[in-house]
Amino acid sequence: MGSATDKIKGKANEAIGKAKQSLGEATGSEKLKGDGAMQEAKGHGQQAIGSAKDAAKSAINRAAEAANKNL
Question: What is the pTM of this model?
Answer without folding.
Answer: 0.81
